[in-house]
Amino acid sequence: MSKYITTPIYYVNGEAHIGHAYTTFIADTMARYEKLKGEDTYFLTGTDEHGQKIEESAQKSGKPTQEFADEISAGFKNLWDEFEINYDKFIRTTDEDHKKGVQKAFEAMHNKGDIYKDFYEGHYCVSCETFFTEMQLVDGEFCPDCGRGTNIIKEESYFFRLSKYEDALLKHYSDNPDFIMPRSRANEVINFVKGGLRDLSVTRTSFTWGVGMPESIKDDKHVMYVWLDALLNYITALGYGTTEENMRYWPASVQFVGKDILRFHAIYWPAFLMSLDLPLPKHIGAHGWWTRDGEKMSKSKGNVVSPREVANAYGVENLRYFMLREVPFGQDGDFSQRAFIDRINSELSNDLGNLLNRIIGMSGKYSDFEIDSKDVLKYHKRELDAMNLVLDSLDSYMENLQTHRYLEELWKLFSIANKSIEEHAPWVKMKENKKNEALATVALVANILAKASIMLFPVMPKTTNTIADALNFKIDNASYRELVIEKKLLKLFNIKVVPPLFPRVEEPLMAEAPLAQPNIDSAKESQDSLKEQDNLIEIGQFFETSLKVGVVVEAKEVPKSKKLLKLQVDLGEDKPRQVVAGIREFYTPESLINTQVCVVANLKPAKLMGMISEGMLLAAKDEDGLCLVRPEKPKKAGTPIG
Ligand SMILES: [Zn+2]
Predict the structure, then answer these.
(1) How far apart are CA 302 and CA 376, in angstroms?
(2) pLDDT tens track for 244-295
(3) Ligand 1: distance of its center to the CA of 125 in Å?
(4) How far is ligand 1, taken at its centre, from the CA of residue 143, in Å?
(5) C-alpha 327 – ligand 1 centre gap (Å)
(6) Average of pLDDT values for 69-84?
(7) How far is the CA of 149 from the centre of ligand 1 (A)?
(8) pTM (global) more than 0.85
(9) Which residues of 441-460 are buried (b: 16+ CB within 10 A; e: fewer)?
(10) pLDDT at res. 536
(11) What is the Cα–Cα distance from 183 to 187, expressed in whole angstroms?
(12) Cα separation of 546 and 162, whole Å?
């Protein structure tokens, strides 16, 4: 069975932001996953280029509309190419064959009696290119979606009989409970349809930047409504109405959309398809939005994260991992450098990266880099069984778009591997002259790494290829079948020495959002200092840090944050300082009241989840958890530490 995966086509009214990158990463990951499994898979992305808004933006920029659209579309395409997004086609709605396909579809709907001509009078939001009813407007005049003013427009228009499909849509939702994913989003769509569907105006006469009418209809003053034109891209990309050459991929397996455009994809789009007598996509996957440090991103706040900037600082694969691991699909996610760095250091560097370094080191010492799986089953059946259980569980998470759970489960493999090294201590076995046992443990870990790399490949293709190269195999459908499905072990090989895959990140590598972290200027230097082993400091440098004893006078949980507590800490000043600390997993708010802490008192204020933090608590963290550093005996609030 073939698979077809799509992103929305991105509107060429602005540059790609982190939300676009997320949609594209998740779709790319799904497509790579299906291809790895050997499915005949087609992955589509592209740009949406028509409509009044584009026409106006082009005018403002003083450029011909097509030139304006070309530039922004190229911006998206170049970014995805830089990120090595493995799409099969990048469609543009200004492509000639797309326009022909749209006209063909319009004609088919018209011939079926699903399109008729009438007048439309309504409140129109230019920005959203949508008509609203009086009832839907905010304060009788403002757009309910974007808040801008609306205009009353009366114009001749062609209408699509959306109302005709009300019952068929409701039946489809109830017969196919996974049509909308996550399921929690389905209710809003169902209620909207139950509220009654009005026929949809699908042409405009007020502007010209759009797909014209089919010749058979001879009505040149109309152009197509941007949503009709845009949604049809998912089939015109396969050759609908022209070559038909890839129509075997239809219906789509998953169509990814942002939650803001779910209504268009879960109501209009299936109705159009029903009218065209085409099957409906299997799943519409609606994802959430991204905030930055807990705040909505906006140009005016100056806190928009550019995906290119993040990728340049941290690497695009780390960004893919972070975004897919951080958020349950469908929920909103928060981009914070601190959370990102935590995941790089603990999950990528510690759990995964170190594992590879350890077996390179051990096999170098014990067996001249040769790794032989011959005794793995003999000494490690328990670990192999545990590993296979994890491997078998993964597919359903990915097919249900639960990438965060997929990665969480996948990471259990690294725990199994790390634990087996601790338990079996190959260095002890070597001293006891049990070389076969020592080498079996090293080989076990190599096998776990190999299988985990295959399953991690869709998320981090380049990194896992490096691991596979070190382990002397290639990640492809053949190795997927052998090592993951048939559970075979690696053949005798010599491991290659590779440099550490995930250097630890000690400080933020990008400027923080306005009003945020210090260390901005030192980010570059810190990268350099990473390379120095013994960076000793002068005593004066130490005393530049003001450390003080503080008393916690108030502690509260931060809503929506699993990690943060908001504290008021008395440092003997006029009023307590607010300190936002990542200690919620280790301390309850009540247990902190009236206890003493050590505070870095001269940090520039930082903003976490939208709250100012005016200091940092000293704490120690190891694999057993975190504990605060406190004075041995109570000291007055504000007592300097040095
Ligand atoms: Zn609007």
Answers:
(1) 55
(2) 999 999 999 999 999 999 999 999 999 999 999 999 999 999 999 999 998 8
(3) 5
(4) 5
(5) 28
(6) 97
(7) 8
(8) no
(9) bbbbbbbbbbbbbbbbbbbb
(10) 65
(11) 8
(12) 67
